Amino acid sequence: MNTKLLIAAFILATLTGCSATYKTGSTFSTKNSATKVTNSANIQPAFAVKSAWRRHVGHGTRGEMLSLQPSIQDGILYLTDVNGHVYALNASNGDTIWKVATKTPITTGVAAGNAHVFFGTDMGQLISIYKNGEPAWFKPVSNIMLAPPAVVGNMVIAKTDNAKVNAFDVQSGKQLWEWGMDSPSLILRASSTPVIVGSRVVLGMDNGSVVVLSASNGQPIWTRAITSQPEGSAVEKMIDIDATPIVSNGIVYAASYQGHIAALRLSNGKILWRKPVSTYTGMTKTSNAIVITTADGILKAYSPQSGAVLWTQNHFRSKSLSAPATVANTIVLGDGKGNVYFVNNSDGSIVATRKLGKKAIYAAPVANGHNVYVYSSGGDIATYVVQN
Q1: Are 86 and 99 within 8 A, CB to CB?
Q2: How many CB atoms lie within 10 A of CB 25?
Q3: In what order do the strands lie in the sheet with 339-344?
Q4: d(Cα 209, Cα 239) in Å, to the nearest integer?
Q5: What is the pLDDT of residues 220-270, one digit of tens each?
Q6: Are strands 36-38 and 309-313 parallel, antiparallel or unpaired?
Q7: Which residues contact 211 (CB under 8 A, 6 or more apart)?
Q8: Alpha-carbon separation of residue 123 from 70, 106, 131, 279 (angstroms)
């Protein structure tokens, strides 16, 4: 049975303890003269970030380190809290459309699609409700889910924390196929969401591998390790891929904890480039960069073509950061004290900040056009409009 790390403080302590064997100096090299390194904020008052609305809903994560990422579809914002509530809000003004109590703790954010809303529970269940809040179906899965499922067309795919993947029919809940692999004995309490691209399902796994399955039957097409397990203690050997992979123009971008970020061909898994990094949160793609928040609080941009580091923002070092999101070609992220940062994509400078609340922001912001929705672990949700 996998042992989970329960609190962010343990992760931060791990980073400090592993510094002798995991060389952050080589990982975060700034010797390349083409790399811009930024150590402080460069607030630009002319940069327009308007607060559209703000609400407090539910209990958030109730102190647990869970990434309950919202989802937006057809002008409705869906979100969950750990106490088992699901909310549908009007995305334009934050008004509550409906609220559902499931009576079981929810451990994932939301996936919305095909008139359904999906999420996972700590009881090892995938639950589906209709977009009007009425119950649809629920199915048991092999273990707890810590990331939302993926839904495309009439298929929803869930990944559990014991490296099992299940595909279900959206309408009926019938299981279509199941796949799994062995999982390391010690992994982070986090997970990545499957990515469905055409007839393929892209997965980031806890053993540092990217796996691509056939969406039709769940059979493996290829498996590629982007990092190798180092020597050392069980903690030092953790190389989970908990950042949801990005797929763009036939290229898969994936990044692991205490390992690497890599670009691979979707067709055959060939590694095009690979660079040392450590992350357990996530990354985003802008018009010209792959931007990642590292485990020790650095925001870093890579060239999608070569993996060259374009810029590094050190202002957040040692802060607990959410995964980043891209809105209007601006990078948005939150930290462990409820701050929201807006970062210039071209050079990594901080161009605006906002305060959402006192509680940590674990979930990646959700972008929709020029709007970005930020949800804190304390149950605060706010919408900001970015005009740059």
Answers
A1: yes
A2: 8
A3: 325-327, 330-334, 339-344, 350-355
A4: 9
A5: 999 999 998 888 888 988 999 999 999 999 999 999 999 999 999 999 999
A6: parallel
A7: 181, 202, 203, 205, 220, 222, 223
A8: 20, 9, 23, 27
CA separation, residue 122 to residues 140, 174, 259, 353 (Å): 11, 21, 28, 34
What is the three-class DSSP state of 25? helix
| Residue type at 234 in one-letter notation | A
What is the C-alpha separation between 65 and 107, in angstroms, rounded? Answer: 10
End-to-end CA distance of the chain: 49
The runs of H, that is alpha helices, within the chain are 8-17, 24-27
> What average pLDDT score do residues 154-169 get?
97
Instruction: Answer yes or no: pTM beyond 0.85.
Output: yes
Give the integer Cα–Cα distance in Å for 346 and 213.
35
Q: Please, what are the domains in the chain? A: 1-31+184-280 (2.130.10.10), 34-64+317-388 (2.40.10.480), 68-180 (2.40.128.630)
User: CA 340 to CA 230: how far, in whole Å?
Assistant: 35
Residue 384 carries which side chain, given as an amino acid letter? Y
